[in-house]
Fold:
Amino acid sequence: MTTSASIGIVTPQRAHFDTPLALKSGGVLPAYDLVFETYGTLNATASNAVLVCHALSGSHHVAGIYADDPKSVGWWDNLVGPGKPLDTNKFFVIGVNNLGGCYGSTGPKSINPATDKPWGADFPFVTVDDWVDSHARLGERLGISQFAAVLGGSLGGMQALDWTLRYADRVRHGMIVAAAPKLSAENIAFNEVARQAILRDPDFHGGNYYEHGVVPVSGLRLARMLGHITYLSDDAMAQKFGRRLRHGEHKFHFGVDFEIESYLHYQGDKFAGFFDANTYLLTTKALDYFDPAYDYDGNLQEAMVRARAKFFIASFTTDWRFPPERSRELLFALMHGGRDVAYVELECAAGHDSFLLDDAHYHAALRAYFSNIEV
Amino acid sequence: MTTSASIGIVTPQRAHFDTPLALKSGGVLPAYDLVFETYGTLNATASNAVLVCHALSGSHHVAGIYADDPKSVGWWDNLVGPGKPLDTNKFFVIGVNNLGGCYGSTGPKSINPATDKPWGADFPFVTVDDWVDSHARLGERLGISQFAAVLGGSLGGMQALDWTLRYADRVRHGMIVAAAPKLSAENIAFNEVARQAILRDPDFHGGNYYEHGVVPVSGLRLARMLGHITYLSDDAMAQKFGRRLRHGEHKFHFGVDFEIESYLHYQGDKFAGFFDANTYLLTTKALDYFDPAYDYDGNLQEAMVRARAKFFIASFTTDWRFPPERSRELLFALMHGGRDVAYVELECAAGHDSFLLDDAHYHAALRAYFSNIEV
Structure:
């Protein structure tokens, strides 16, 4: 990746929406903001727009850097930019922070106009459907009646899938990477342990920790440590850390002995320093609830009949959070429904996190697929 | 299993040891108790003794029931008894609670004679080597100069492996089930998240919670919930719980939505009600540190040269905590060293926990092996 291929300095934008958003949980957001970024130029017929949906801890900052912080590289910067697989010379790319998030879109940290205090525990439950509804409105605001593609990895892939069903005429290509059509019991189990760590942290204060001037650091830290175990593969951990000792010997203490422990502590501490606990809780519940086949007695093929898009699906052999068989569930449901699907199963050692890396085959697959999208 | 095949009512015994035990950590236990149970009768030549080593949350209560509690069935009662695979008509079977435990052997809950208070955080680190040393002394006390077999599952299997190396002439058969020659980085990672949950619980009080009259319930609960995810397989969870809802619909709350959550809460609450947090910490560290190849530059084959026993090794295809490839590491190290090894890889759906169940092939393998042990 050369510097010349970076989109360069980018600036987030904010869109305010006054029309209330009815949520799947039964609640209503009376008004809300969405923070987003765009890269490239929307063409005259608005046919070249690609929406990039973020995963659990991601944001609208997909590519480029901020002028005031040269370290602030977007989370999918290796993918999005001039000459990159998602080429901003061809496409107009949008990244948007989900509702309930903690990066600028309306969420639990935002001020609840009814109380003039942070929403905290009163912020309504949001779902993948709600995010997609709110992003569809952003599309309208930007003059996009149909997206060339909606792309996402992990939870972002679920949003892309949701788009193809609930806004079938507004998306030509659904691109779903390292995702699953729904969480397994084991996926839900990991989420629940992470949530319990936060909910039981005395500094959580029932979700209203903002007013107490504290953060449930221990809970967030545990949640992130656990998360990182599921993002990596057993093999990747073995290669990266193995049983390497931090101090060259067994110390017989409860501090750090092994490098893997040091890595998890570092990741946990970093995360607890910037991420919002309520956002973590809400987002994991949105993951748990997501199930397009829910209203179809669990029959995914029937659920997918509504789709009109073409599909790109990618999975990674070492991803044990959403392993290839989960992508194949979706693949077969789509194929049995006669849909046009490109599927690639990639051997990339990094586990679930592979979707963020620039593995050569993976990026070649994305580059080829995007190059064949007509705009 | 018929009632007539149960060993029936059993009574724990206690052995006190006055000779100080030098520990691998550098510490010394000046004196200690071991609580144990025996089933069957030691023969005249003391050649029919089988030591059963317990795993993380197990105890000396391997088989039978206590007279005052008909629900108190031993944790491996399906295996040990008259006519059972480990037949007490032939063998004299010993179960012993590990040092550092919380079921009667000297541990952090015990009174430290130097302070007249519970040991708490001052209890020294114990390792697999230390357990084996202390159990060897129990063997001497009982007049057993050589065990017919030492058997264990999971952490118990590591103790059995340790016996074959450090007391090579005192064990004729090392029987190692659902174990690994050492923990992987991922194994250590899970242990560390569980430990952090306990260490960061405000009720932990640096390990001296006994004097505060509290228990770090939240930490123990999280540790056990996480543990249970690793004891089951993804498939077993899918079959047992899937995405079944507790209340028939998504409740949009942080209480229990899915059956799998309810199961984990139940297991976590139960465990926190009886298990000691310091024991949990010490035992997971003993697991992390265990590595017979540590003094051999990681070369397991060289480490195993000392062994004189015959081996029985069993693994389960759905065990992702210690998957079959971890057992095969040991198998190949032994085979390259010319040792006599029986290895069986079993298709049992229950994941790591399979070693506790009475799968027909599994029990047939154990029965056949035990029946061929000469006493």
